[in-house]
Amino acid sequence: MHVRTMLHHSVMVTNMSRILQFAVRRAWFHHILSIFQMAFYTKGDHVWLAIKDVKDFNVPIGAVVKSRDGLGMLLTDEQGEERFVSGSSLNDVESMHPSCICGVDDMIQLGELTEAAILRNLFIRYHSHKIYTHIGMVLVAVNPYQLYQIYGPQQIDMYSQQTDITELPPHVFSTAQHAFISMKRRLHNHSIIISGESGAGKTESTKLILRYLTVVGGQHTTLDQQILGANPILEAFGARIEQYLLEKSRIVNQMPDERNYHIFYRLLAGLTDMEKQKLHLTEAKDYHYLSQGNCFVCEGMDDAQEFVNIGRAMKVLMFSEEEQWIIFTILAAILHLGNIRFQALIQDNMEACAILNNDAVESIAELLQIPSERIHEAFTSKSTYASGELIYSPIAEESAKHIRDAFVKGMYGRLFIWIVSKINASISKPAVDSKGCTSLGVLDIFGFENFDVNSFEQLCINYANEKLHSFFVDHVFKMEQAEYSREGLEWSSVDFVDNQEVVDTLAKKPLNCFALMDEESRFPQGSDESFLQKITSQHGNSSCFVKSKSLSRASFGVVHFAGTIEYNVRGILDKNRDTFSADLVGLICESKMDFLFNMFAKEMSMGEETRKRSPTLSAQFRRSLDVLMKMLLSCEPSFVRCIKPNEFKKPMIFDRYLCWQQLKYSGMLETVKIRKAGFAIRYTFKEFVNRYHIIMKELKIPRMNQREMSEALAKQLLLDVEWTIGRRIIFLKDHHGDILEQARDQLLTNAVVVLQRAMKGFLGRKKRRKQECAAVLIQKTWKGYLDRREYLQVLKGVTRLQAIIKSHLLSQKFKRVREEKRRAEQEKERRLEREKQQKEDEAKLKAQEDAAAQIQKMFSFITDEEETETAETAEQKISIFGRNNEQEQRGDYSSSLVSLGASVVDGTSSRSSQFNRSGIMSYSPRMLNGFGRITQSRSSDLALTLTALILGLACQQGSSSEDEETRSRDEHDSETSPRAPEFVSPLRSPPKGPQGSMRWRAEQS
């Protein structure tokens, strides 16, 4: 026994010595090897350095040799960190292929098809402000989180006018142009699928593609504006541009550093103070639904300006101002609903609750036009039917919150559906015959989501991503390899990650997760715990299903192609049911707002049992997703993979691990391999001959069957051997397509030049003939114009000469006529003067005769009555011809005599101007005779009177010799202002008393 022990120890010592010797030899070997390895690298060389910073991230990083010595090398990696490598660590250093140093536009051109090469290529291009990279026809877009000036009209023109887009740098416009050209060239529907995580820039890429397509489509119509205008509205209300699933739980609950839907913040930032006052709104921090994530501002986004953009988009999409205000009113009511606070109570030994802040209820009642007491009743109690009677029972505080949140989610969800329907109605065109028409669709689908707490919405979203990735895998890998096999090609298959097992577990197998969820949701007693037990027992052994580590966690895990994600089942059945309780339907019925009533019209028409039997939300979502996938299968797809470079949304920060995860999820490495080894371009023989027959004619390829003609063309034009022919399809590389298209374009260009030359010659000759005819016509017209102008000038001179002569003749005639007229007028004036003088003489004569007759009559009258009448009686008779009776009554006889003379003269005033001295003298003998007889009378007073009369008449006649102008003026003055005769009696008035009168008479006699 002792000997055996000694032998055993000796064997152990021998083995240990051998091991030590081997280790020493190995160490020396590695040391010597490292020395040789260092000899291969010099300063400035680019190398790969293997690092293990993360447990499952062992992708080498690019580095540059800064210096080296006998112990090791000092490297500077691509992130700027210095690393000293020595000893065994030198084994982690490998040489870098030259194609990986500066980066390439198309990663198929990389000399190394490794994850490190792809990651470094994206890193180099990202820091060179080149955010787009091709993998064949797959575009990888890294979000720069800053605006580059590469999307203007100049870039649109550059990509739209380039026939070979491979000659231009990778761009989202190049993908859009390729899809557009493929659709027009092959007359087949095309689709552009944009995928990536949330925040990777999918929405912006979609906007850019839509903008490019509206420009190159050549139809700048209102419809284009409406399509582009729909983006800001749907993005603000749903944070995504799809309507397959709205994450309604986000309205009532947000994760830390996460905002609610943008529309709420933009509403508060864009409304005026008066509008806020009408809606009882303040700031975002004052509302529970907006403050849970403690994130109120999104960096790089102006909420006020975005609200203005939403308003403009609504106008373009024909939202009326009334509809816009109703939308804002409902959003304001949702914010006020979130501020309702409940207080737990005990009522009749039952849990109950009451609303604390009545002001929020009053605001909701005013906005939604619902009685406030009905809001209290709907949120703090529930109704049940028992024995045909409606019974109200109180509910606990948590139940009240769930009812409030359900009401908010239902209202917001139906508002979102109405907005989408309104947009679809605005942009939809009248149905036309779709035969022969092709379409190009753009799909912006939500990215993979993995939060701290994942629930029903994340399960649906990630299932959609699994379906989309399955479509990508089928199209890029499975269909590719299956077609190679059908065509009998020799093909080395490419290993890829197939996610079909995950898709089947979630929705394909008979008892898949969604089917079990729907089944449990229809049971009245179904619960989240029973659902978890069923799926665990059914899929617990599946490789893609992860059981919960403890029952208290109430969760399960799914191994997605993007990684393992844990889902919490609490509340998952309620979200799947998505039903509206009868109490909430009754609350809506109380509203006087027609818009709100119409949004819930479907729920109004259904009974409680009908609502319970309606399809679950997951069933509706899967049905919509199946329709989408069928549509995609009927199209030729193009893919845009959006990459989020960092979690901070900061520019020029490239997180290698985050980007590597996204590249791994999307299968980019496998895509590069299969695209490089595969044939991206393929035609049937008929399509190939029809498209390139012009090249065959140029190369004088004889007419044979289509396969032989295709092969002959490929042999003559495609000198390499990387193309192949199958049973009915010819397979080409990307550069083969470029060669064929360039040759075809060159021949077409030459043919077009010939046609242009012939057509230009024909048009030139035709134009020359037209010009000659036009020249003759112009000459004829010009000559006619000159002749007419000369004739008109002569005619104008003749007309002017005639006018001068006629003017002279008429002037002479006018002078003669004027002289004759002047003479006639003078003769007429003389004749009128003679006639006037004659009339005046006749009038004077007649006046004299009348005056003489009156005097004679007076004399006769006085003579006949002289002896019988007394002096007083004669004076009274004579006073009849006077004008002033008052003077006669006073006995002022001298004045009466004068007045009597004036009266006689006045009696003939109208004819006084006709008297002259000759007339007076003709009557004077008779008057003197009469006067003599009168003087012999016993009445001396009468004699005096008669004497005064004669003297006055003589004075009046003496003034009748004035010229005609003076008489006319006197007549005018006499008409306007009558005056007394200009007569001054030469007699003095007789003095008063008998003695004075006698003395006066003596003097007069």
Report on the structure:
By secondary structure, the protein is of the alpha+beta class. Among the domains are: 102-240 and 637-677, Kinesin, CATH 3.40.850; 248-427, Up-down Bundle (Four Helix Bundle (Hemerythrin (Met), subunit A)); 456-576 and 622-629, Up-down Bundle (Methane Monooxygenase Hydroxylase, Chain G, domain 1); 681-820. It is 60% helix and 10% strand. The chain is built from 39 helices and 20 strands. The strands form 6 sheets. It has a 5-stranded antiparallel beta sheet with strand order 4-3-2-1-5, with helices on one face. Helix 17 packs parallel to helix 26 (617-633). The longest helix is centred in the C-terminal third of the chain and has 132 residues, at 734-865. Mean pLDDT is 78; it is low at 1-16, 27-36, 881-941, 955-965 and 970-988.
**Beta content:** 5-15%
CATH architectural grouping of the domain at 102-240 and 637-677: 3-Layer(aba) Sandwich
From the N-terminal CA to the C-terminal CA, the straight-line distance is: 228 Å
At the fold tier of CATH, the topology name of the domain at 102-240 and 637-677 is: Kinesin
Total of DSSP H or I helical runs spanning 4+ residues = 39
**CA-based shape:** flat
Helix content: 55-70%
Using only C-alpha atoms, the radius of gyration works out to: 64 Å
How are the strands ordered across the major sheet? 4-3-2-1-5
Poorly predicted ranges (pLDDT <50, ≥5 residues)? 1-16, 27-36, 881-941, 955-965, 970-988
Please tally the β strands and state the result.
20
The CATH superfamily of the domain at 102-240 and 637-677 turns out to be Kinesin motor domain
